[in-house]
Amino acid sequence: MPSTSQLQALRDSLTPDATLLSDPSSFEFQAHLQRWSNVNLRTPSAIVLPSTEEDCLSIIKWARSTGTPFVCKSGGMSLYSTIDEAGIVIDLSDFSSVTYNESRSEATLVGGVRSKEVAMELARHGVCTTLPSSNTVGAIPFFLNGGNSPLASKLGYASDNILRARLITAGGEIVNASDDEHTDLLFAIRGAGQFFGLVVSLTVRAYPVLEVFGNAQGRFWNGRFIFPLDRVAEVAEAMRHVVNNSTYCAGGLIMIAAPPPTRCPAIVVTARVIHPKSEELQGEVFKALYDLGPVASAGGMIPIENNGDSLQPLMAPGDFKKLRLTAIHVYDPSVFPEIAELWRQMTTTCPDAMPSMFSILWESQSPLPPTFATANGMHGIRFWANNLTWCTSAESQEVVQGYLEKVIAVTRRGQKPVEYVDFANSLREPESPVHRRYHDLERLQRLRRLKMEWDPEGLFGGDLL
Ligand SMILES: Cc1cc2nc3c(=O)[nH]c(=O)nc-3n(C[C@H](O)[C@H](O)[C@H](O)COP(=O)(O)OP(=O)(O)OC[C@H]3O[C@@H](n4cnc5c(N)ncnc54)[C@H](O)[C@@H]3O)c2cc1C
């Protein structure tokens, strides 16, 4: 744990606009301590908010010289930007921006900038990039660890769209990684970036919305279909054709949940089509769902920068939440009634887990593969078991975790352990071993070698050591 004089020395090394919070009872400290989830949330000895790249460098150098462990925090949506009193949190929320370079069709993301901010700024210029369906996710960590977006089948994973990175390494140096400099590091940053340094800025590809969506507003059809939960088998069966129809770029979630405000258990299909004629086509693409007669359905054209807005209630901080994604290689409708039964049992045993959702994320077309090697090992996957557990009471966590494991086992039925793939940007060890996140052996070996070269002491996490 750093001493008061060490923290004072850190404070003295920072620029005047930087902030160091070391009183856990203060309102500011508590506000910056908040995360999307309280799972494993710990209280550090200080939260430091750099305001410049120079501040970031001073903090890493100080941490090295005092032997103080640290974690970086951007959007605070993961379970990993928290540390106990032995260490400090480097909170990047006051060091955050996004700029667009029109002549190069590139966006540069800085520090803790959130996805929504990036989407809005790019929309002003009539361009877009690969961003999550969740506004508050930190844009840099999203890109660094893969990054799945509704545009993956058109533009690839977010990590495939990284052009350059500027980072502070465990050695306390500022380094640029690009096609010309430290190319090996660029390979690692494109899919496993969090484990290699504090990324102060990331330059990513941007695309004219006219090219991607066929209209100047970047609009596409987005909707949802709601059915009572006892119709789960028919809905899942009807979706078999929809999810496997690769003619159109369509995708969404098939979700077992009790959506607010009624909290009636339901099977909810969220659905989108990206096509110049998406509004006309959606009736044909989702005909099987309309034919079933949903109890409610809604949809319309939205611009890409509003893609995450309908999920805003899921972004609320606090409670005990976990988002875990595991790959499914073949769509099997027969798993849904079993998952629905597990959801029912879980919410009966732990009513405070009612906001939980068990779902399958589907894409009708595979993510566009890159033409270069990257650390991202998730290409070729169109379906993910996308499970969000959410309970309000700490005591329910163990029971809820048990149900989560059962749901994952159901969705992995028929897979050999060697075929298990975990989404790189959800959970880490021990729940999600590193070989499942970077599952190709050659890729993993290369990453391990690079980790030994750039961060042998695991300052940025020990996963690859
Ligand atoms: C509700 C929800 C929805 C999501 N939706 C999607 C989605 O649609 N697609 C998708 O791919 N993922 C999605 N995710 C996963 C999300 O992309 C990852 O959890 C991501 O790491 C969160 O980044 P953050 O900045 O918000 O979190 P943080 O907890 O702040 O950071 C995440 C990790 O990155 C490290 N880190 C933070 N900033 C930096 C930096 N500048 N340099 C190096 N390391 C840094 C942190 O130490 C931590 O280990 C979702 C997650 C949630 C909870």
TrEMBL record:
<dbReference type="Pfam" id="PF01565">
    <property type="entry name" value="FAD_binding_4"/>
</dbReference>
<dbReference type="InterPro" id="IPR050416">
    <property type="entry name" value="FAD-linked_Oxidoreductase"/>
</dbReference>
<dbReference type="GO" id="GO:0016491">
    <property type="term" value="F:oxidoreductase activity"/>
</dbReference>
<dbReference type="GO" id="GO:0071949">
    <property type="term" value="F:FAD binding"/>
</dbReference>
<keyword id="KW-0285">Flavoprotein</keyword>
<feature type="domain" description="FAD-binding PCMH-type">
    <location>
        <begin position="40"/>
        <end position="209"/>
    </location>
</feature>
<dbReference type="InterPro" id="IPR016167">
    <property type="entry name" value="FAD-bd_PCMH_sub1"/>
</dbReference>
<keyword id="KW-0560">Oxidoreductase</keyword>
<dbReference type="InterPro" id="IPR036318">
    <property type="entry name" value="FAD-bd_PCMH-like_sf"/>
</dbReference>
<dbReference type="InterPro" id="IPR016166">
    <property type="entry name" value="FAD-bd_PCMH"/>
</dbReference>
<dbReference type="InterPro" id="IPR016169">
    <property type="entry name" value="FAD-bd_PCMH_sub2"/>
</dbReference>
<comment type="similarity">
    <text>Belongs to the oxygen-dependent FAD-linked oxidoreductase family.</text>
</comment>
<keyword id="KW-0274">FAD</keyword>
<dbReference type="InterPro" id="IPR006094">
    <property type="entry name" value="Oxid_FAD_bind_N"/>
</dbReference>
<protein>
    <recommendedName>
        <fullName>FAD-binding PCMH-type domain-containing protein</fullName>
    </recommendedName>
</protein>
